[in-house]
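A sample follows:
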Amino acid sequence: MHRRNQTVATLGQIHYDASPSWAWLSCHCCPHRVAMTLAWAVIRYGPHVSTDVLRRRARCSKCGALGAALMRTSYVNMAIGDRSFPADLTWPADVAVTQTTAPSV
């Protein structure tokens, strides 16, 4: 089912309008997910590009599936606030990227 009359956020909007400025990329086919800084996506694709580009071009580094869900970080509680960036589950530390490839989940 296609989205009708809905505006999809741009990479710049989710990067600049949010704190913290990172998100989860989750594979559609397996339970693998990685944390990704949104600054990388803004630099690579530009701030005016739809977030759908990232969803379509992400490739899972575990199962190889193309496409991923882009999920914002979650609020923990008043004492902690937003979730901190999980350095151990980070992309692109475990993935080599060239000009023709997209981020791997």
Summary: The first strand starts at residue 22 and ends at 27.
